[in-house]
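Input set for joint prediction.
Command: fold jointly, output tokens.
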Amino acid sequence: MTQERQSVGVSKKTGAVDDAWIEKLNRNATRRSRVRRLSPVAFGAESIERYELGNGLRVFLVAAMDAPVVSFHCWFAVGSRHERKGKTGLAHLFEHLMFNETKNLPAGTFDRKLEAVGASTNAATWTDWTFYHEDVPADALGLVIELEAERIKNLVLREPQLESEKEVVANERRYRVEDDVDGTVSEVLYKTAFVAHTYHHPTIGWMEDIEGFTTKDCRTFYEKYYAPNNASIVIVGHIHVPEVMRLIQKNYGDVSSAKLPVEVTPLEPEQLEEREEILHKPTPTARLAIGWKSPPMSHPDHVALSLLCEAMTAGRSSRFFRALVTEGEVATDVGASVGQFRDEGLFELQLTARDGVSARELLAAVDREVDRLLAEPITIVELERAAARLELGFLQGLETVGGRAEQIGFYQTVLNDPAGSLTRLEALRGVDVQQLDVVAKKYLRRQRRTVVLVEPEPEVSGEEVTS
Amino acid sequence: MTPTFVVETSTTVPLVEIVLALPVGSMSDALGREGALALALRSLRRGCEGRTSVQIDDEIDRLGAEFATGLDALQCSLHITTLTRNLEAIVALVAQMVLRPTFAEEEVARVRREMIAEQIDSRNDDRTLCGRFFRRHIFAGHPLGRPSSGTLTSLEKLSMRDVQTAWKHAWGTQGLIVGASGDVTEARLQALWGKYFAASYRPKREAPALPDEPSRIRGRHLIVVDKPARTQSQIMIGTLGTHPRDKDHHALYAANTVFGGTFTSRLTREIRSKRGWSYGASSRLGRERVRELFSMWTFPKADDAAACIKLQLKLVEKLVESGVSERELSFVQRYLARSSVFDEDTASKRLSSRLDEVTGDMPKGYHKNFVRKIEEVDLEAANQALQKRLNPEDMLICITATASEQLAKIEKAIPRLASTRVVSFDCDEFFGRWW
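tokens >
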């Protein structure tokens, strides 16, 4: 793409196109490939240009000319929430398979072609979404669009590749869960906290499910969910908008939309009593995880609860860090987050105990701090510190074109708002201490929480060094 | 005395990153006092003239800033990230912390206990364990083999004097570099330095000399980091690699990229794509002021570990014996040249590259000339570099695994194995030369 290219109906300043240019683009278009221009959305100093193809594909473009690089993201609104019992981990396994063979590309060619132009590529799957991304020198964006469109249209699923990829995913599971105590804790926490909703099972899937997938499972999944009307493309970087839209129309315009299945995710019943799991693991230090049920990301309380979480636990000046790590010396670290999910999630707190401190003792220390929080709410000074930290984190996420593309894709997929991160930042600035107190009392109740305690198994090691 | 200023300005986001880099690293810690400089660096935020540790933490968070420290064998650094609007306030605070630290006994003791707790906790991470014992053994007897953050034993031994002296020496050593990236200009940075640091900056000590070249491992040696109930193994295999000043540095770099530097490289193809043995499989060449390592990393399930090690060694043998092909070489040359645009697409990355050269980690012009030098590598040079630098018979193999279940199988899978050591995962030692 070159910035110099100009044509009628194209803004010299932003590269955005007007209705006349769109009409020209659509002159020979089919119903599927017709491009519709939607109103742009402000994204800080930049602007998100929005388009939609007749087949339902949404496209979000940001021209950022600081460096000759582009980040391409394709987000699908499918994740592990769409899986059912016995078939868990399919969305994630499928993400791996998308890097394999297509009708026009033998196995391995997809990655090879990208490497040949200096691009890097990867993907991620979570509960509510899956996304694929490439960071690429600007002059090779056309190839990326071609390759991404090819695998959405022509993926080939064969037994040998599936078997090999199942083994890779099983190894990924061993790495992230079986041999990782924190991974195990997180898995047990969600499994215990959710009894009906599909957030109960891990995105990577249960081992026996991973081992049991067939090519038929994968093909059905592909046909059901990998359709343009279930996808959003985000491109940020050194682009020429008209040229990008021409390429999108050319490569994606012939893909049929699909009749997306009606989602039947079971509703999670209200949690009415505390749940607890105790694990014994070969770990040198005890672990503790607590998950309080938290609202969906679209809920008005979500912003205030996220700010509360930051004020409570983030930074060395936070109450929990000070009470448990620096001064109390019962924990090595405190981590916390509020789940950014479409449905009710968890306000998670994860702690690692100091040597000799049991998980039960750590829980007692956390309980004291939670009680104190409810009795002595967050102050204005604490709120301001938390807001400043969140602003820093938000801005750090905008430094790269990939970071900006990810924010746009995530908020579009989860909240249907491509500039949602900025909307949220504004909302954060409007939260006051009373709101923090309200959400603390509403959500941090014992009957809403699940606790996982990990106690170390007696040490098994023998001689320190033997030759 | 004025430090060297390196600035990369960008107004993309209203953030500023500042790095203060000093040419003093953990190899300056006295023997048996490993961790002294690490403890001093971490204690900087635990009190300074006019502020307690609580006040410092409060202020850093209030300003929307981050303060971190970095340390390796050869240098240490302080890193500040801040919202642009609070730049001056955080510089003023850090100046107090750096120039007038209190190093109060109680606070230093707290930091020491934090470091000890973190070291104990790090035993949970099998990959960290594998990397730790791999480095301690391959650089055995050399300063690079000494742990920068100390051991439980050495940390316990450190006195207040050790800590104070470590910082006094580091800050009193000539060669400070002040780097900045983001929403700041060099004039602004210099003005802030002039206002808050200049009057008190009087370094007298000369930077310590670089350590000798590490000695190459001879023979094949196995370290098993023994940990109970492992379903998976973390494996690192390697030897000494290249130095950026080596004439064949770029040739070896290109050849390694063919072998294990990309997602379609030989190692990834054989271990992950064909056999599904490991989620990740890669090789790398470390680049530092002192010769660093060539290393391969894989993590197969426990039952595949022996076969995986055997195959990896065979792949290195084949690489050295038959070399890379013209086609493979030209592919990675194109890949490295084109992807280099991502080495400088943000101000932060551009700063990092410039710091590499100013600190002496890389020769002057290393990054600017990197693509040209890679493109100049011919097939003969690449294959000669492999033969000269990598001997498949001289490799350290380190694996985190349950020894009682895996040791015999692994030993059997390694032809011409010269020695084996089984080290408990909670072993606190580092080692003298042992092969």
